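It is worth pausing here to work through a concrete case rather than discussing structure prediction in the abstract. The textbook approach is simple: state the sequence, then state the predicted structure, then interpret. We follow exactly that order.
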Amino acid sequence: MSTSRRALLALIGVAASLALAGCGPDAAKTPAPSATASVPRGSTTPAEPASPRVIAEGLDAPWSIAFLGDTALISARDTGEILELTGAGARVVGTIDDVTAFGESGLLGVAVDDRDRLYVYSTAADGNRIQRYAIDGDPGSLRLGGGETIVDRLPSASVHSGGRIAFGPDGMLYATVGDAGDRAAAQDLESLAGKIVRMTPDGDVPDDNPFGGSLVYSFGHRNPQGIAIAGGTVYIANLRGAVLRTVPVSDPSTSSELFAGEYGRLRDVAVAPSGELWILTNNTDGRGTPTEGDDRIIAFEAR
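Step two, the predicted structure:
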């Protein structure tokens, strides 16, 4: 097994052991799924962060953060909009066509490749899909260019729709797919439900995937909504837990909590180009209790 695969599976396991349960009818009994970011630090022991600051507020059901150079792009689950953060706030870069927003589905994860192309995971009428878009223009006036679908008809449902995407150090695109309410499908290698899938940037099956000819990379998941690769500390944004968990990869049993209950539900955590950590609150998605200014992006420096 390659080093990159061992690292990825280790971090999937960390997230699963702490917070990779779903938000279905039995949600009150289990923690909610969580997003993750991995930070390569010299020390794997997290310390108290510096004073956090608000980067943006007044966002409507935001779901994911990605960076195009120094510019942050945000997905809005229910409107299908891609937002660009500027000094004046958030502006719409474009709207993803034919997004079907219901329950936990809609416009979900976003990622940017090394050619500055935007990848989007969203729900259409016939299931979840991953699309790739050009981004045109300059910071402050970006716009969506032409798009193409690279994978479609991924399982979707009002619950357990997965949706996180990220590029690995191997240049491959990883995506988390929920079981769409069908627990048995998560164990079925003929189905992409309840899986971590791995593909080339064009949506093809890599030759070194573990199951020949299949996008499946890891299986048996309920509703994975976070993924991160091979740093010293993993940061996990919790929805129901309303906390940012810090997990040293060397010893996951020593995990600790930051910002417990301070900002409500936390949907995503990402490493900014500056090295700061950005957390995305999610109190306006119909399950939280919004306060004035929600939803927000909060930035802090992890010491």
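Step three, interpretation. The two ends are 33 Å apart (CA to CA). The chain has one helix and 20 strands.
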